[in-house]
Amino acid sequence: MLDKNGIAKRIAQEVRNGWYVNLGIGIPTLVANHIPESIDVEFQSENGILGMGPFPVDGEEDSDLINAGKQTITAMPGAVYFDSATSFAMIRGRHVQLTVLGAMEVSTSGDIANWKIPGKMVKGMGGAMDLVASADNIIVAMMHTNRAGASKLLPACSLPLTGVGCVKRVVTNLAVLDIKDGAFHLVERAPGVSVEEIVQSTAGDLVVPDEVPKMSI
What we know:
By secondary structure, this protein is an alpha/beta fold. The termini are close together. A 10-stranded mixed β-sheet has the order 4-3-2-1-5-8-10-11-12-13. The protein has 4 helices and 13 strands. The longest helix is centred in the N-terminal third of the chain and has 9 residues, at 4-12. It has a single domain (4-207), classed as Glutaconate Coenzyme A-transferase (3-Layer(aba) Sandwich), CATH 3.40.1080.10. It is 14% helix and 24% strand.
């Protein structure tokens, strides 16, 4: 199965030349580290930067240069900085071609829960609700199961929703799955992972084709 960087590498294959892409906190932030040099993409962060690069190497961090998750980042040549109002105008104006988000749960209807676990302290929902309400192309990057081994791909989300019917594709440590017609559709399996393992780890309805290709990482 994949580790977090493996998930990010697979999602990097979804990025197209000339796109503006928003990366949520967690696994999605790793995507910027795996973009081929042949692809020209602008990464946007809702705290007010367009033109994020990969994470800095140890010893070259700039504590004043951070993403929305407060991680230190690099800036590509030509990067620009602006206030949150301008950043969210870009998001709400549908000027972002791809949004990559982490999630605690995703349902067969394409619902996503990624901002709150009841009873636990949270800093707030961040920009996720604006992103899911405004984006046409949302990919979720997450582990297939939680720490207790329970599936995070469910018939219906049990946690507070961030968005309804908005997720089109999920990339996990086990598989790539599309969401359509009220079910998860298995597209690819991770290296070393069997179809049976994916079926056992998926609580929501899962459509499995006769042939399931292995991911190319």
